[in-house]
Protein backbone atom coordinates (compact mmCIF):
# COMPACT_ATOMS: atom_id res chain seq x y z
CA UNK A 1 0.00 0.00 0.00
CA UNK A 2 1.33 3.42 -0.92
CA UNK A 3 1.43 6.17 1.63
CA UNK A 4 1.28 9.92 1.87
CA UNK A 5 4.55 11.64 2.80
CA UNK A 6 3.28 11.70 6.41
CA UNK A 7 3.11 7.88 6.41
CA UNK A 8 -0.68 7.53 6.35
CA UNK A 9 -2.19 5.19 3.73
CA UNK A 10 -3.67 6.73 0.60
CA UNK A 11 -7.44 6.57 0.90
CA UNK A 12 -7.88 5.27 -2.67
CA UNK A 13 -5.66 2.25 -1.92
CA UNK A 14 -8.00 0.98 0.77
CA UNK A 15 -11.24 1.29 -1.19
CA UNK A 16 -13.13 -1.97 -1.50
CA UNK A 17 -15.27 -0.65 -4.37
CA UNK A 18 -12.54 1.39 -6.06
CA UNK A 19 -13.56 0.07 -9.50
CA UNK A 20 -17.13 1.28 -8.89
CA UNK A 21 -16.06 4.78 -7.82
CA UNK A 22 -13.61 5.03 -10.71
CA UNK A 23 -16.28 3.91 -13.19
CA UNK A 24 -18.52 6.62 -11.79
CA UNK A 25 -15.80 9.24 -12.27
CA UNK A 26 -15.28 8.17 -15.90
CA UNK A 27 -19.04 8.20 -16.57
CA UNK A 28 -19.20 11.67 -15.07
CA UNK A 29 -16.44 12.76 -17.44
CA UNK A 30 -18.39 11.34 -20.40
CA UNK A 31 -21.49 13.21 -19.20
CA UNK A 32 -19.53 16.49 -19.07
CA UNK A 33 -18.22 15.90 -22.61
CA UNK A 34 -21.70 15.13 -23.97
CA UNK A 35 -23.33 18.08 -22.22
CA UNK A 36 -20.54 20.36 -23.41
CA UNK A 37 -21.20 19.47 -27.03
CA UNK A 38 -24.99 19.67 -27.02
CA UNK A 39 -26.62 22.90 -28.15
CA UNK A 40 -27.31 25.03 -25.12
CA UNK A 41 -30.04 27.47 -24.25
CA UNK A 42 -29.33 29.77 -21.34
CA UNK A 43 -32.47 31.10 -19.62
CA UNK A 44 -32.80 34.90 -19.59
CA UNK A 45 -31.07 36.41 -16.59
CA UNK A 46 -28.55 33.55 -16.27
CA UNK A 47 -26.12 34.56 -19.02
CA UNK A 48 -23.10 34.40 -16.65
CA UNK A 49 -24.40 31.37 -14.78
CA UNK A 50 -22.70 28.99 -17.18
CA UNK A 51 -19.34 29.98 -15.65
CA UNK A 52 -20.55 28.58 -12.33
CA UNK A 53 -21.66 25.40 -14.12
CA UNK A 54 -18.18 25.07 -15.65
CA UNK A 55 -16.48 25.70 -12.32
CA UNK A 56 -18.63 23.15 -10.45
CA UNK A 57 -18.44 20.46 -13.14
CA UNK A 58 -14.66 20.63 -13.38
CA UNK A 59 -14.27 20.93 -9.60
CA UNK A 60 -16.22 17.68 -9.16
CA UNK A 61 -14.20 16.00 -11.94
CA UNK A 62 -10.92 17.22 -10.45
CA UNK A 63 -11.92 16.06 -6.98
CA UNK A 64 -13.11 12.63 -8.07
CA UNK A 65 -10.14 11.84 -10.26
CA UNK A 66 -7.57 13.22 -7.79
CA UNK A 67 -9.16 11.33 -4.88
CA UNK A 68 -9.39 8.08 -6.86
CA UNK A 69 -6.02 8.34 -8.66
CA UNK A 70 -3.92 10.12 -6.01
CA UNK A 71 -0.57 9.43 -7.68
CA UNK A 72 -1.72 11.03 -10.95
CA UNK A 73 -2.64 14.52 -9.74
CA UNK A 74 -0.35 16.43 -12.09
CA UNK A 75 -1.64 14.42 -15.05
CA UNK A 76 -5.23 14.97 -13.89
CA UNK A 77 -4.67 18.73 -13.61
CA UNK A 78 -3.22 18.99 -17.10
CA UNK A 79 -5.55 16.44 -18.67
CA UNK A 80 -8.75 18.05 -17.44
CA UNK A 81 -7.58 21.54 -18.40
CA UNK A 82 -6.69 20.29 -21.89
CA UNK A 83 -10.06 18.52 -22.06
CA UNK A 84 -11.77 21.82 -21.20
CA UNK A 85 -9.72 23.64 -23.85
CA UNK A 86 -10.53 21.02 -26.48
CA UNK A 87 -14.23 21.11 -25.66
CA UNK A 88 -14.25 24.90 -25.80
CA UNK A 89 -12.70 24.70 -29.27
CA UNK A 90 -15.29 22.15 -30.39
CA UNK A 91 -18.10 24.29 -29.02
CA UNK A 92 -17.25 26.82 -31.70
CA UNK A 93 -18.53 24.24 -34.20
CA UNK A 94 -21.80 23.50 -32.35
CA UNK A 95 -24.93 25.52 -33.19
CA UNK A 96 -26.04 27.79 -30.33
CA UNK A 97 -22.63 27.35 -28.61
CA UNK A 98 -19.46 29.38 -28.74
CA UNK A 99 -15.94 29.02 -27.45
CA UNK A 100 -15.11 31.19 -24.47
CA UNK A 101 -11.82 31.93 -22.75
CA UNK A 102 -13.78 32.70 -19.57
CA UNK A 103 -15.36 29.23 -19.68
CA UNK A 104 -11.88 27.72 -19.97
CA UNK A 105 -10.69 29.82 -17.01
CA UNK A 106 -13.68 28.59 -14.98
CA UNK A 107 -12.80 25.00 -15.99
CA UNK A 108 -9.18 25.44 -14.92
CA UNK A 109 -10.12 27.07 -11.62
CA UNK A 110 -12.61 24.27 -10.96
CA UNK A 111 -9.98 21.57 -11.61
CA UNK A 112 -7.52 23.32 -9.30
CA UNK A 113 -10.11 23.66 -6.52
CA UNK A 114 -11.08 20.01 -6.94
CA UNK A 115 -7.48 18.91 -6.59
CA UNK A 116 -7.08 21.08 -3.50
CA UNK A 117 -10.19 19.51 -1.97
CA UNK A 118 -8.95 15.99 -2.80
CA UNK A 119 -5.70 16.75 -0.99
CA UNK A 120 -7.61 17.79 2.13
CA UNK A 121 -9.43 15.49 4.58
CA UNK A 122 -12.38 15.67 2.15
CA UNK A 123 -10.31 13.44 -0.16
CA UNK A 124 -11.35 10.49 2.00
CA UNK A 125 -14.98 10.92 0.91
CA UNK A 126 -15.12 7.59 -0.93
CA UNK A 127 -13.67 5.71 2.05
CA UNK A 128 -16.21 7.42 4.29
CA UNK A 129 -19.05 6.45 1.92
CA UNK A 130 -17.88 2.84 1.89
CA UNK A 131 -17.76 2.78 5.66
CA UNK A 132 -21.31 4.12 5.91
CA UNK A 133 -22.60 1.74 3.24
CA UNK A 134 -20.97 -1.28 4.90
CA UNK A 135 -22.72 -0.37 8.17
CA UNK A 136 -25.98 -0.61 6.22
CA UNK A 137 -25.02 -4.08 4.99
CA UNK A 138 -23.90 -3.17 1.46
CA UNK A 139 -20.97 -5.23 0.22
CA UNK A 140 -20.88 -7.46 3.27
CA UNK A 141 -22.04 -10.54 1.37
CA UNK A 142 -25.18 -10.74 3.47
CA UNK A 143 -28.56 -10.34 1.89
CA UNK A 144 -31.04 -8.10 3.63
CA UNK A 145 -34.65 -9.24 3.47
How far do the termini sit from each other?
36 Å
User: Overall mean pLDDT score?
Assistant: 85
Class inferred from helices and paired strands: mainly alpha
Radius of gyration: 18 Å
Query: Percent of residues in helical segments?
Result: 55-70%
Number of helices: 5
Number of strands: 0
In quaternary terms, these chains amount to single chain
Helix/strand order, N-terminal first: HHHHH
Low-confidence stretches: 1-9
Assign an overall shape: elongated
- Biggest pleated-sheet summary: none
What percentage of the residues does DSSP assign to strands (E)?
A: under 5%
Describe the structure.
- There is one protein chain.
- Helices cover 61% and strands 0% of the residues.
- With 145 residues, the protein is an all-alpha fold.
Structural key phrases:
145 residues; mainly alpha; 61% helix; elongated; disordered N terminus
Helix-strand blueprint:
Layout: H1 18-37, H2 49-68, H3 73-91, H4 101-118, H5 125-135
Helix pairs in contact: 1-2, 2-3, 2-4, 3-4
Short recap of the structure:
This protein is an all-alpha fold and 145 residues long. The protein contains five helices and no strands. It has helices at residues 18-37, 49-68, 73-91, 101-118, 125-135.
Amino acid sequence: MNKHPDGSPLAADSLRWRWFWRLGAWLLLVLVVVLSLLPSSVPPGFEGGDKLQHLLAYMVLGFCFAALYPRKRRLILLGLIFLGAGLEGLQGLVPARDASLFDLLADALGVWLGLLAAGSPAGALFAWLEQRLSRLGFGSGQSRH
